[in-house]
Amino acid sequence: MGNQQSSTQLRSQKHEESTTNTEISNSFKLISDNGEVINLNQFKEKFGERLGSSLWNFFQQNSELMDKQKFEIIANKLNKISSFGLVKILISPKNLFEVCVESANIKINKNDEFFVNSFCEQMTSKGDDINSTNLWIEENCPRLFEPVFDKINKIFFGKQNIILNNLQSEILSPIQFFVLRQSLPTTIFWPKPISIDSREDWTLLYSSTKNGLSVNRFEANVFDYRGPTVAIFNLTSNQLYAIAADEEWRHSCKSFGGPQCVLFKFSPEFRRIDLPSPALYCKFFFEIFVI
């Protein structure tokens, strides 16, 4: 029984390796346009300006052309790469962040520069070495590299990406919303899709633009929802906050919320604040006592 199981696992491993090698070979043909080598422009055209340049500079250094053998070596290294390995390739922090955003098909405009700089400064708040940067990402934005891994897997190995809805916010910019999405606790707010065709669906419960700026309407639309929510607030002081709550909103004299509640600050600077539960308190009205 043991030998039979070992033999089955070996055949499965060989089949997987054969499939991977075929996909890598097909990828080389596609990028090189059926040629013998790949140049930098061809590489960047497929991977994107920032990711393509970063991978090329790290693995190719001063070489102007990449042959099939080198391409296969790079592919096999990237097939086993961790987030730590990506930090090592993509460092500096700003290049790292811009590669992730570009891989998510989000364009950076001038209005995003302050937020981008703030996020990158926070990335080195534990230290500017690779270990410290990787640790900060794991603690604050654990799925930051998700679109980079997806792009590498799709191009080198032909693996289909999980297609996510193009979610938008009336308050947060696309880059800020991307950071929020990649930072939320997965177990509560981002269940793993059950198939390649499944997409995450967020239900808009309340919008001041659509429903009017009203505490009563906010209560009517949000307080009865029994599940995790994300509330985004634009204060009159131009500060932007998001509250990820793993329990339903309610009026209470006592704080509530479980261990997955998180407060995010997006303007004027980025901060993630994890507090011991229960951490939420909400009371919009005052009780009047007659003596």
Oligomeric organization of the protein chains: single chain
Q: What's the total helix number?
A: 13
Number of domains: 2
What are the low-pLDDT stretches, counting only 5+ consecutive residues below 50?
none
The helix fraction, in percent, is: 40-55%
Structural features:
single chain; 291 residues; alpha+beta; Recoverin, domain 1; 13 helices; 10% strand; TLDc_dom; TLDc domain-containing protein
Provide an overview of this structure.
Residues 1-25 are annotated as: Disordered. Residues 1-11 have a biased composition (Polar residues). Residues 170-291 form the TLDc domain. It comes from Meloidogyne enterolobii (Root-knot nematode worm). The protein is α+β, with helices and mostly antiparallel strands and 291 residues long. The protein is built from 13 helices and 6 strands. The strands form 2 sheets. Strands 3-4-5-6 form a 4-stranded antiparallel beta sheet. It has a two-stranded antiparallel ribbon with strand order 1-2. A hairpin with a 3-residue loop joins β5 (262-267) and β6 (271-274). α5 (83-90) packs across α8 (130-140) and α6 packs across α9 (146-157). It is elongated and about 70 Å long.
Strand and helix layout:
Layout: H1 2-32, E1 37-39, H2 40-47, H3 49-60, E2 65-67, H4 68-79, H5 83-90, H6 93-103, H7 113-123, H8 130-140, H9 146-157, H10 174-183, H11 186-189, H12 208-211, H13 215-222, E3 229-234, E4 240-245, E5 262-267, E6 271-274
Antiparallel strand pairs: 1-2, 3-4, 4-5, 5-6
Helix pairs in contact: 1-4, 2-3, 5-8, 6-7, 6-9
